[in-house]
Write a structure and sequence with these properties.
Length: 325
């Protein structure tokens, strides 16, 4: 497989009145064509900022560094015309909470048709047929094209968002907490739909969630973020069942099974809160909460270190173990 997307030392800093917020710090990740990558972490770890950066959807106060290579082309330096062509047609995004992503006064069918018409992929008289196909693909009856968003349930609205994301047959879909606002049963249905669609259409997926069990269920690989950094990266099952970073282990323990309502809790065994990005601890950002921190962790910030086959983790314990072996 070849890499469809490569993030190379990506950083995002928001400039606000009080100073600078380093929301994403030096993230390097790669996504193979047809593969699914899950990005997990607590609230504030920088997941949504990362997702928005991929399609240059960040607000103006965000300063972005590094490279985002989509099929070898840097999204960050693309001209606006090219970027407009890439959005929807090559990469599209499904946001968290579908009610915010849909226009309340426009019919569903017209909203799904919009990216198709903007990208000139159908003529106005062909749009209706393609919209019907897309509604069927996401498990909605075709007559729903005439409905307004408020006439649909949360799960149905999220299906509409997925239909919009699929409309222009992109190669990459970025899904930011696509099921978080849904109840457990509907969440499972939407996850099954996402899995089925990416497999059928060979679409690559980046899925963002604070719920590691959901990601492990859908994605081939997982990246765990803490305070804007990737602290662990590897094949899903291995990271979920045997994380090498102490934060990864705490996060996995908090989410024993997909959609478990009890899993809306803080990572098990961890005290305290994630750090304020404007006042990051010295050394490893995780050390004040880490159950296995050593004295050196307050001064030493370990980079991602190889932690087995196609895995890495940013922890002194991992580095020590790998150095010995
Ligand atoms: N527009 C903005 N201006 C300033 N700071 C921001 C902005 N957007 C996000 N941040 C800050 O950047 C950091 C990362 O936020 P982000 O929303 O990316 O995290 P997240 O992991 O997606 O969290 P959540 O799961 O709560 O959405 C946080 O400290 C947040 O307060």
């Amino acid at each position: 497989m070849t890499a469809l997307l490569e993030l190379d030392d990506l950083s995002v800093t928001y400039r606000i009145a009080a100073g600078e917020v380093p929301a994403v710090r030096g993230v390097s990740l790669s996504l193979d064509s047809g593969a699914a990558l899950g990005v997990a972490g607590e609230s504030g770890s920088g997941k949504s900022t990362l997702a928005m950066a991929l399609l240059r959807l960040l607000p103006r106060d965000a300063r972005v560094g590094g490279r985002i290579l989509l099929d070898g082309e840097d999204v960050l330096t693309m001209k606006w015309g090219r970027l407009r062509a890439v959005r929807w047609a090559e990469a599209s995004i499904v946001f968290q909470g579908a009610q915010h992503g849909l226009n309340p006064v426009q019919r569903i069918g017209d909203q799904i048709a919009e990216p198709l018409l903007v990208h000139d992929l159908v003529k106005p008289d062909g749009a209706r047929k393609r919209v019907a196909e897309l509604l069927e693909q996401v498990g909605l009856p075709t007559w729903r094209a005439g409905s307004y968003p408020h006439e649909l349930s949360g799960g149905q609205r999220q299906r509409v968002m997925i239909a919009m994301a699929l409309a222009c047959s992109p190669r990459l879909i970025v899904a930011d907490e696509p099921t978080t606002a849904l109840d457990v049963m509907v969440q499972a249905q939407v996850l099954t739909l996402i899995k089925q669609l990416i497999a059928e259409h060979g679409i690559s997926l980046i899925m963002i969630s604070h719920d590691l069990s959901v990601l492990a269920d859908v994605c081939d690989r997982l990246a765990i973020m803490y305070a804007g950094r990737v602290v662990e990266n590897g094949p899903s099952r291995e990271v979920f069942h045997d994380a090498r970073h102490p934060y990864g282990r705490a996060l996995a323990a908090a989410f024993p099974t997909v959609g478990d309502p009890a899993s809306r809790l803080a990572p098990r065994g961890l005290g305290g809160d994630p750090p304020d990005p404007m006042r990051l601890p010295t050394g490893c950002s995780f050390h004040p909460r880490c159950p296995v921190a050593l004295a050196e962790c307050s001064t030493l910030d370990v980079e991602l270190w190889p932690a087995g086959e196609a895995r890495s983790a940013a922890c002194v314990h991992v580095r020590a173990k790998e150095e010995i072996s």
